[in-house]
Write a structure and sequence with these properties.
Layout (H helix, E strand, L loop, with lengths): L1 H20 L3 H26 L7 H19 L3 H23 L5 H20 L1 H4 L5 E2 L4 E2 L2 E2 L2 H24 L1 H11 L1 H6 L4 H27 L1 E2 L6 H14 L4 H17 L3 H24 L5 H20 L7 H15 L3 H9 L1 H22 L9 H7 L5 E12 L2 E12 L3 E5 L6 H8 L7 E6 L2 E2 L5 H6 L2 E3 L12 H8 L8 H6 L2 H20 L15 H13 L5 E5 L7 H16 L3 E5 L3 H7 L2 E6 L2 E6 L1 H5 L2 H12 L1
Parallel strand pairs: 7-12, 7-13, 10-11, 11-12
Antiparallel strand pairs: 1-4, 2-3, 5-6, 5-8, 8-9, 13-14
Bound molecules: adenosine-5'-diphosphate (ADP) and magnesium ion.
């Protein structure tokens, strides 16, 4: 963390020195454009890199930012201090108009909707001549600050300052609970919703924030170019922005800056055959050296380096055969994209990070030390639970926490749950068993709002659950784990639990951007609790490990810690012992018992009969979607119908 701060500081100071090093306005303008694009890419990366959505509308948003300057300057002669915030807010507003309907869909549909938006914006700018002067464009002089007109150099420094500010704000957003929400919904939308982080809301939020950055970039661009016209903000620019993210590397600010540099410099590079030859030669040399080192150190295999080496070699040779590059520009550009997509899927920065993974081990050790400090401060695991006192007093209100009546869940002709009643008493561990396909998981999905039942009634704490969204149900006190583990794979164990603690944050965007004391307090508190929860399930020492790298058994435990972070009154565990070794199962039983001791009611789906028999107070048995038995574990075990269902199941 510290290292990246120092790196960013050096880079920013370096950028700020450019006008002092070279008086050449051409170079100054180039770097200025890179910085402006970087601001936009910081925002776009939130949408593309973090939430995993594709936006083809960002050149349109960029255009809105630019034209806010155009219109406000032309019509109202508004000053800079008014125009910059206005372009951020107006573009964010348009972003919201786009996002609210568009983000109901995803994947190719979203791409189409955002593409249409971009096109419409361009057409509108073209047609609304009374406001925008249409195809003629608008001339904009450099702005004034306090009555003093900025010259090219002053404005360059203004852009520098805006870049630094954007970097700070985007950094704060992304490492806050908001950033975690964005990342989580990409990792597993269903788990996000079930952790009380509404996927739709945070997708829209991400898009609107991203639009704000596009607006700021657009307005700076307008002043930088001093002339704006509609056809700048076209489809090609949108694709270029996406490319920058892909090539630079998603989820890093350095990737965004590198991406911006590439898309600004590459076209210039491909204009000049001499420079192109030099660069192709250097690229070829670097790749050959890299391949040789990789082969010697056994990082890479011969097959994996063959194509890149031959490819860049041919490109270098080809560059000397060429007389004229203009006809080949697009083809070379296309080849480079293919190369990146095939070989550098995490972008250039992602690739370099992988090479420097030794560094990462170091920072992990630092994290671990941090964790030990936390432990020393806090001392016990008990602060993992917060609601226990409150919940125990609530337990006197009513004995039945969850009441489901005549629940029917039909998929086409299949009745996955057929008129099932379920009454779960407070403070109990309620087992739900049955052969495969008997409807157990479906029951959980119905209880957590993932499916809406075809018929029936479900009351939790005396209030109906039906019609509520998964995230509303989660926030009302039902947490769950999943049969097929649904962790946020790219996030660390600690961050996974912190997503569960999302509901403890009341801070808004402004708190986060300003790092207000409220946010800091909440963040501290959440971090402490997250560590305590990890300790509770025995994962304290793995806090900074990426969830996807954890062994399967640990992933299941992490899911439980994350679910507990929600401060649930009811915890649904879907086959938590599946795939666990015998000692792990013992540990799991102990953990579930401790959870009950904290007055959390548990519904446990489990195939391991010993687990069910040893800890459940009540067991319900499903078969073909119907409840065939219910009662104390021992009674159920000797029930003939149950024996038949299980034997029948295994015989089939
Ligand atoms: P269990 O968890 O008890 O093994 P499930 O609840 O996963 O069983 O499944 C019960 C039945 O419902 C199965 O026949 C399954 O194929 C069916 N089912 C579950 N989810 C869906 C769905 N989304 N669409 C269609 N059928 C489903
Ligand atoms: Mg199941």
């Amino acid at each position: 963390m510290k290292k990246s701060f120092i790196f960013a500081l050096i880079a920013l100071i370096g950028a700020a020195l450019v006008p002092l090093i070279t008086p050449n306005p051409y170079y100054i303008h180039l770097v200025e454009t890179i910085m402006i694009y970087s601001i936009l890419l910081f925002g776009l990366d939130i949408v593309v890199g973090y939430t995993g959505q594709v936006s083809l509308g960002h050149s349109g948003l960029f255009g809105i930012g630019a034209y806010t300057v155009g219109v406000m300057f032309m019509k109202f002669a508004a000053p800079l201090w008014l125009i910059l915030p206005a372009s951020i807010f107006i573009t964010a507003f348009f972003g919201a108009i786009l996002a609210l309907p568009a983000l109901k869909v995803s994947g190719p549909y979203l791409a189409m909707v955002t593409l249409a938006f971009g096109t419409i914006i361009q057409i509108l700018i073209n047609e609304m001549t009374f406001l925008t002067e249409g195809p003629l464009g608008v001339k904009i002089p450099k702005p004034q600050i306090a009555g003093i007109k900025l010259d090219d150099r002053d404005f360059y420094w203004l852009v520098c300052a805006m870049l630094a500010l954007s970097l700070l704000v985007v950094h704060r957003i992304l490492r806050s609970h908001l950033g975690r929400a964005f990342e989580a919904l990409r990792g597993s939308p269903v788990a996000s919703d079930c952790m009380g982080v509404s996927v739709y809301r945070y997708k829209v939020y991400a898009f609107v924030i991203s639009a704000g950055f596009a607006g700021l970039a657009g307005s700076l661009y307008a002043y930088s170019e001093q002339y704006i016209s509609p056809n700048t903000y076209n489809f090609e620019l949108t694709v270029l922005f996406l490319l920058a993210i892909i090539m630079g590397g998603r989820k890093t600010r350095s990737g965004a800056i590198l991406g911006a540099t590439i898309i600004v410099l590459l076209p210039k590079l491909l204009d000049d055959i001499e420079i192109f030859r030099i660069v192709a030669t250097i690229a070829c040399a670097l790749i050959v050296i890299g391949a040789v080192i990789g082969l010697i150190k056994k990082w890479l295999t011969f097959n994996s380096v063959l194509v890149p080496v031959i490819g860049t070699f041919c490109l270098a040779v080809f560059s000397y055969q060429l007389e004229n590059i203009t006809d080949w520009r697009l083809s070379i550009f296309g080849l480079m994209i293919l190369f990146v997509v095939y070989y550098l899927q995490d972008g250039i920065i992602g690739f370099m990070n992988k090479l420097l993974s030794a560094q990462r081990v170091l920072s992990e050790q630092q994290d671990l030390k941090l964790h030990q400090d936390h432990l020393a401060q806090e001392g016990n695991k008990e602060n993992a639970f917060e609601r226990s006192a409150e919940a125990s007093s609530a337990s006197e209100q009513s004995t039945e926490l969850l009441v489901a009546k005549e629940v029917l869940m039909q998929f086409g002709g299949l009745k996955a749950i057929n008129m099932v009643d379920l009454r779960v008493k407070r403070g109990e561990i309620h087992g739900l068993i049955g052969p495969n396909g008997s409807g157990k998981s479906t029951m959980m999905n119905v209880l957590t709002g993932i499916y809406t039942p075809t018929a029936g009634q479900i009351d939790f704490k005396g209030q109906t659950v039906i019609g509520k969204t998964s995230s509303e149900i989660a926030l009302s006190g039902i947490a769950r784990t999943f049969q097929n583990v649904q962790l946020f794979g790219e996030m660390t164990a600690l961050q996974n639990v912190l997503v569960g603690l999302h509901h403890t944050f009341k801070s808004n965007l402004l708190d986060v951007a300003l790092a207000s004391s409220r946010y800091k307090r909440e963040d501290d508190h959440a971090t402490h609790r997250a560590y305590a929860l990890l300790d509770f399930v025995g994962l304290g020492s793995l806090a900074s490990e990426q969830a996807r790298n954890l062994p399967y058994g640990k992933q299941r435990l992490l899911e439980i810690a994350r679910a507990l972070a929600l401060d649930p009154e009811l915890l649904l565990l879907d086959e938590p012992a599946a795939g666990l070794t015998a000692p792990d199962i013992k540990e799991l039983i102990a953990i579930i018992r401790k959870i009950r001791d904290h007055h959390i009611t548990v519904i446990l789906i489990e195939h391991h009969m010993d687990v069910v028999m040893s800890i459940c107070n009540t067991v319900s048995v499903l078969d073909f979607g119907q409840k065939i038995a219910e009662g104390k574990p021992l009674d159920v075990q000797s029930n003939e119908k149950v024996i038949e269902a299980y034997l029948g199941g295994s015989a089939a």
